[in-house]
Amino acid sequence: MKVCLLYENRERAENEPYYDTKSIIQDLGLPVLFSAASKELTYENGELKQVEAADLFVSETFRNVMMTPLLTAEEIAFRQEVAKDFLAAPKFARELYRISTETVTKWNELGRGVRDRIRQGNPVMRLTTEIRVLRLFTDSLSEIRALLKKQENLTSRGLQAFRKEFFEAFSEELEKDVRKVLEDTSFYMAGLDTKKEEVQNTVVKPRIVFECGLEDGLKFSSVKLLAVGSEDVKYIRPGSAGDKLRKFMSAMTKDGVSTTEDGRLREDTQKLHLAVVSYLMKRQKGWMDGFQTFFDQLRLQSAFYLGTVQLTEHMERLKLGWCLPKVCDRRDLSFTDLKELSMALAQRVDVIGNTCELRGKDVLIVTGANQGGKSTFLRSVSLAQLMLQSGLPVAAKAFESGIFPRIFVHFTRREDSAMNSGRLDEELQRMNGIVEHIGDGSLVILNESFATTTEKDGSVIAYDIIRALSEAGVRILTVTHLLSFAKRVYEETKDAPDSPVEFFSAERLADGTRTFHMIRSEPELTSFGLDLYDAVVGKQGKA
Amino acid sequence: MKLTEKKTETPITAVELADPAPEYLGAMDASREFSVLNLYRQDFAAKEIENEAFYLDLNLFPVIDKMTMPWGKAVRKLYMFLPKTPEETAFRRGVNADVNKEPVYRALLTLMERLAHVREMREEKEKTSNRLQRAVWKLREAGAYCSAYEELAEALSRVELVSDGMKEFLRSLTEILTDGGFRQMKKETEELLSEIHGIRFVVTYEKDRVSVEPVDGQTAAEGEASYEEWLARFDGGAGAGMPNPFVTDSTLTELEAACLEMLKSKKPEFFRALQVAADHETEYERPVLARFEREIPFYLAFRGFRMEMERAGFAFATPTADEGKPMEARGLYDVALALMSYPEGRPVISNDFYYGEGERFFVLTGPNQGGKTTFARSLGQLVFFAMMGLDVPAKSANVPFFAGIQTHFSVEESVETGRGKLMEELVRLQPMMEDWRKGSFVVINELFTTAANYDAQIMGKRVLAHFLSLGCKGIYVTHLTELADESEGIVSLRAMLDEHGVQTFEIRRGSAEDTACAANQVNKYRLTYEQLKERL
Question: Which residues of chain A neighbour B239 with C-beta distances below 8 Å?
């Protein structure tokens, strides 16, 4: 029984995660997003009551799934469909995750994973554990079936197939048969988990009938079970009058031998119990093996969708509009009111959105005023791209982009801004790593790259690298201060009818006010650092 | 140091060696059963090991240990006694020739496997206290014993045996197999076992009681739908087949015994037959076969060892014992050295030699590390294996009969006795020189090295003269070239060097010369002044 909710007919990706996911996560501020996805929001009377503590399994799963791209529009559509079903029934997602998590937890408590150690241990303990695992499986699967039965409005291929396959793999008839085995073997657990004799004044006694032959040493051979069952028998306290009567009756009976009077005979019946119940448990493996990975997979896959549901709830809480993005040609990119989600989540506010439409462009160069929202813009696009490629909703009214299985980020690291000659080296080294992994469908996102050397040198490096990448069919998004680089590209391409390069700048009104909007514009000669200097230092100096 | 350590394992003190001549073994003991090892039917198993020094000096222990390791201590002990007459050696050589035939060897190995299994069954039988089970086990054991020897007789009859020993054995075996008792035993066993296999019954365990009902035909008890078949719905029958709940005990459990008891009243005829079998505690073993089982591994152990060495590229040959021809061997090597060297891929040198008309003693001189000791050992080993009636580590050989093997190798000074080395040597030498040792093969390695050169020469010459007078043959390894002076019965041998003065480990006839041999070693190990200047 496979879950197959993340991929059609598959449990896991066949492709590798992105290159250098550590940088992607760090540079795009993803931890705040993973964290939001793992926190449930509880409401009371329409008011937010509480943000629950983060579920680490959900955040980790969310990260792992998000860091492995979907490769085709079909794969994205498949996941979006499932997400839609869950978004329409958040409780369903939560319940699936709860049941699978509880099952895995209890199973672990019963010693899964240390099975080998237990296997060498006491066979009685081992067997009671097997019975408990069987019960756990049966109860959990029964609960999942009930849950699935209630979901009448599932429209996604993924969940419809899951429900259908589940009903077949764990039919009501199978459950009935399994419960009969549990009932037949209940004598084995009788003294262990209930105190039946005390409570109900009865004990459970086994009834075992088997046919067999003899081998050379006169020992039993070729045993064939004819009947196994458990019977409630009135409990008789040892030494009581009833006990004496029973013993007397037993002694009078000609047919058969009592197994309770002789210590060694009693031991042998214990062996018989153990062997018969072990055998019945062994036979259960036939169907249980099909569910060995089921609970883990269901937990993992439902965790991702629960994360999706919760992340969307967070977006709604902040009143960020969201949509399920669409796939288009790789040279196109368009979006309406796209928000930078990680910043919004971190600051718990709505943020300014951007709108853009590129057709037939391979390179986007963003220049402009400091603190004008350039990097935010770059991050919002990158983030939406990643979310598109994991089948997630994005924080925009609309978002449409191509699929890039290889996404690379190259951000100037603020934290190591302690200037030293090694920084350019480090940057180039990272670039080298990226270039080694470039392939079909690559997207390179550069944020203030090569700013660690002089403007002149940096520009030449940037020009050469970006030109080469672009000629290799790589899409490039870059924010840069290197104006001579930007100017050079602008001059070379401005008169070409189908120029593959687009230039954006942070909007700055005539009075110097920043709108934090990106607009199409010729690269500006200054990034208005002076404005900022004045704003921060200059005015202070004047005051 | 090593030698001293080994010495403590098999202590050979002067007192022991000074014992009078051991009882002569060349007399038939008619009271004992036929033996493939001892023409005179005397049983080595009952004898004290003779503790002869040559086993240690000739490095025979690692070889014998290697051979007999799969067979155990009792077989090892058989290698500790040399035959005392030429007839006995010849007798063994015949048996060995038959064992060397592939079908005979295979059949004997199979027999030993079967008998080991019988022994296991016998040990198992001792565990059970249930009389019925014991009886059945005993029958099974007897059946296996009979079949094992029947198979052997069958296999041997298809081969043309050449040796008196194996022919005589096969005759005794056939006699035993055709006698009534053996046959009857086998028939009864087969019948009873087949009847046991035919019994089926239903065990019902409920309300703390067990009861049993025999099943006739193949139908199960009425009214009971088979749970077994119902279980197929869980796994399609893939895991079907319940093991016996009591399989972990080989003996009958109380519950199984109780069920058998109950079955008794329901199938009385069968249990009566079983009871009869149990009451007849028949002895199935036969003394001749028991002795054969003890002794034949002597040959099997050697054959296994020989095959392993042959796979590694070492030759073995069946020696002749022609008294009219000179004693000689071609391609002779030190088998103990070969055993140690071949796993490491080190080459082992072989040599040829002969004692010409009237030649009695080799005096071997030559450079250190030139293979002198190795050659002397290989000579001793040659005599040992030839006298044992086995094949020898050489390409071909003619070895006449010797009354014994005497060796004297120099050892470290004994810490235990505190005696000086010369004293030690003399104490060990003395018993070798007693009169009853006449006609032995003698290997002497570096005698009197601590004595003054002049004294050593005199003593050496007297020792040689003494052994010659006792009619011994042998080899004397020494530094004293004076001993190699050609005289009555003495042949000078030299360990050879090549044109660069490097040891070739070849041993050739030639007069002894006094050469500096140490320089070769220095050269060989590139430790001369120039070499060291280059290397450093």
Answer: 282-283, 285-286
Q: How far away is chain B from the Cα of A184, in angstroms, using its nearest Cα?
A: 11
Q: What chain A residue is nearest to B254 in terms of C-alpha separation?
A: A265
List the structure tokens of A237: 């306290």
CB contact under 8 A, A219 and B246: yes
Chain A nearest C-alpha distance from B250 (Å): 8
Is the pLDDT score of B17 beyond 50?
no
Quote the tokens at residue A116. 């080998």
- Check A265 against B255: CB less than 8 A apart: yes
| Cα angle A279-A280-A283, degrees, rounded to a multiple of 5 | 90
B334 touches B374 (CB < 8 A): yes
Contact at CB, A272 and B233, closer than 8 angstroms: no
Does A271 sit within 8 Å of B245, measured CB to CB? yes
Contacts of B137 in chain A (CB under 8 A): 216-217
Between CA A293 and CA A272 the distance in angstroms is 32
A224 part of contact set with chain B, CB < 8 Å:
yes
Cross-chain Cβ contact A223/B231 below 8 Å: no
Hey, is the C-beta of A176 within 8 angstroms of any chain B C-beta? no
The reported pLDDT for the residue numbered B442 is: 93
Q: Which residues of A touch B130 (CB under 8 A)?
A: 218
Q: Where are the domains of chain A?
A: 186-289, 318-542
Q: Do B250 and A217 touch (CB under 8 A)?
A: yes
Please report the pLDDT score of residue B265 as a whole number: 83
Geometric angle at alpha carbon A26, from A329 and A468, rounded to 5°:
45
Q: A409 has which bridge partners?
A: A445
pLDDT digits (tens, 9 = 90+) for A425-475: 777 778 888 888 888 999 999 988 877 666 777 787 888 888 888 888 899
Within 280-319 of A, beta carbons closer than 8 Å to B belong to 280, 282-287
Predicted confidence (pLDDT) per residue in A56-75, tens digit: 999 999 999 999 999 999 99
The CATH number of A318-542 is 3.40.50.300
CB A186 within 8 A of CB A230: yes
pLDDT tens readout for residues B117-161: 999 888 888 888 888 888 888 888 888 888 899 999 999 999 999
Region B2-22+316-524: CATH code = 3.40.50.300
Which among A207, A257, A60 is positioned nearest to B212, based on CA atoms? A257
A262 touches chain B (CB under 8 A): yes
CB A476 within 8 A of CB A470: yes
Q: Where are the domains of chain B?
A: 2-22+316-524, 83-204+211-218+248-311
Bridge partners of A411, per DSSP, are A447
pLDDT value for A419: 39
Cβ contacts from A onto B, under 8 A: 180
Residue A166 banded pLDDT, cuts 50, 70, 90? very high
Cβ–Cβ under 8 Å, residues A331 and A359: yes
Pick among B128, B136, B203 to test the A interface (most A CBs inside 10 A): B203
Kind and range of the H or E run holding B253: none
Q: Is the pLDDT of residue A91 over 90?
A: yes
Distance from CA of B31 to the nearest CA of A (A): 39
Question: Among A210, A186, A189, A188, which Cα is nearest to A271's?
Answer: A188
What is the percent of chain A where pLDDT is above 90?
Answer: 51
User: Please, what's the largest Cα pairwise distance for chain B?
Assistant: 108
- Place B409 in a pLDDT band, splitting at 50, 70 and 90: confident
What is the reported pLDDT for B8?
A: 39
